[in-house]
Amino acid sequence: MTVAYLGLGANLGDARQTLKDAVVCLAQQHTITVLAKSSFYRTAPIDAGGDDYLNLVVKLDTTMPVRHLLALCHTIEHHFGRERPFRNAPRTLDLDILLYGEHAIDEPDLIVPHPRMTERAFVLVPLVEIEPTLIIPQRGRADAFLAAVMDQRIEKLKSPCQCLAPNTAAGSSARSDGAADNAGDNAADNAPKGPCR
Ligand code: A4P
Ligand code: MG
User: Fold this and answer.
1) Is 94 annotated in the active site?
2) Which residue, 3, 84, 112, 128, has fewest beta-carbon neighbours within 10 Å?
3) For this structure, is 91 an active site residue?
4) Minimum-distance ligand to the CA of 85?
5) What crossing angle do the helices spanning 15-27 and 66-79 adopt, rounded to 10°?
6) Is 52 a catalytic residue?
7) What is the domain count for the chain?
8) Which of 135, 48, 155, 39 is nearest to 94 (CA)?
9) What pLDDT was estimated at residue 110?
10) Is 53:90 a contact under the CB 8 Å cutoff?
11) Does any domain span residue 172?
């Protein structure tokens, strides 16, 4: 089993619903267990135009080889209407592999740890929320990079529903200001029609 972290982002369409559905798609894989899910964050576009993004980070335990995980990310993005008209274009869904165990990969189509993750509040803040003492291989503690990105606008969203406890179906242990945003987490009840198996 390998612990991996994925960054999810969207700024086109119903971003919140798409992100929830994407997490359900991940959780429904037989070879993936979603261990934790951060709060949702509204974030200013960085090196990009368009509307504000919604971002979150998930922590997975998986037996899926990293290449399969990348292919799954692309399949889920495609299912939710991802288009790539130009670099950093607004998108319905982006799934990036931030970390895959201790692995360091530097290939044309796959770089892990994600090369820009330490420069971005929209990655670091949710990552540190779910793993406060995380060490990024070859770079050190994730929280050490936070000070340098604090000029990037980022706002943690409160859950619209305060009645559900965290740590339910998809294995979320992330907390927002009150309760985790669990609506859409119950993979059995809320399964999106998608590439989930
Ligand atoms: N690729 C290489 N390494 C990876 C990896 N670790 N995970 C390749 C996923 N893909 C990886 O990806 C482009 C290529 O990177 C793919 O062919 C893949 O094989 P993409 O999904 O088409 O585009 P991308 O994710 O936008 O590319 P990139 O270069 O990772 O962009 P960034 O640097 O992640 O920036 N602002 C806010 N507020 N929130 C955001 O989510 N996202 C970006 C994208 C810019 N600004 C943003 C946000
Ligand atoms: Mg991407």
Assistant:
1) yes
2) 84
3) yes
4) 1
5) 140
6) no
7) 1
8) 48
9) 98
10) no
11) yes
Q: Locate 39 and state its tokens.
A: 């709060």
CATH value at residue 96 = 3.30.70.560
Q: Is 107 among the domain residues?
A: yes
Q: How much is the average pLDDT of 59-65?
A: 98
Q: Which of 39, 2, 43 is nearest to 20 (CA)?
A: 39
Q: Which domain holds residue 156?
A: 2-189
Q: How many CA atoms within 13 Å lie on the side-chain side of 67?
A: 4
Ion ligand 2 contact residues with beta carbon within 5 A: 94, 96
Among 21, 91, 181, 185, the active-site one is 91
State how far Cα 82 lies from the chain centre: 16
Q: Is residue 86 part of a domain?
A: yes
Q: pLDDT per residue over 146-156, tens digit each?
A: 999 999 999 99
Question: What would the pLDDT profile of 122-153 be if each residue is shown by its tens digit?
Answer: 999 999 999 999 999 999 999 999 999 999 99
